[in-house]
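Tip: read the tokens left to right.
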């Protein structure tokens, strides 16, 4: 199952970029044998600053046709890392070819785009910087792959 991180904004060079690339590489290596990945970024940018609706249109074009759409949203469901791993495995085992995670910009995701989602997850009730959410998601993807592989990275 190919994984797509569809996100508003460009992540420039710096610590977040280094962490994101590292965790996506790790996920790619670990997930390959599990039928997960590779993961790729699809960045979109609203250069006119037209707001969440314009960003939603750009995100919609970044999501591959037929992909399961999972949004990152503060109103979404929280999950433990093992529950997240089980969710990925369930989608993979159901034969999904593509999984797209959508991360909005500073104003979040437009309501119409949220209702289009197949699933919504939250990293808790706090609001996180959208650039940092990418890193957190990438780390959880890698953690999920290690859980599914029975590896030692996740010690719960």
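Filled-in amino acids:
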């Amino acid at each position: 199952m190919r994984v797509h991180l569809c996100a508003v904004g460009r992540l420039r060079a710096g610590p977040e970029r280094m962490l994101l690339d590292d965790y996506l590489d790790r996920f790619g290596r670990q997930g390959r044998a599990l039928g997960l990945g590779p993961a790729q970024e699809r960045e979109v940018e609203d250069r006119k600053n037209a707001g969440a609706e314009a960003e939603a249109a750009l995100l919609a074009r970044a999501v591959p046709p037929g992909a399961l759409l999972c949004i990152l949203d503060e109103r979404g469901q929280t999950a433990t890392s093992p529950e997240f791993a089980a969710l990925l495995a369930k989608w993979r085992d159901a034969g999904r070819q593509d999984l797209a995670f959508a991360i909005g910009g500073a104003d979040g995701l437009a309501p119409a785009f949220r209702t289009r989602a197949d699933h919504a997850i939250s990293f808790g009730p706090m609001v996180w910087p959208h650039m940092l959410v990418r890193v957190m998601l990438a780390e959880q993807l890698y953690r999920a792959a290690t859980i599914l592989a029975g590896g030692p990275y996740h010690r719960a």
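The chain has five helices and five strands. The chain has a mean pLDDT of 93.
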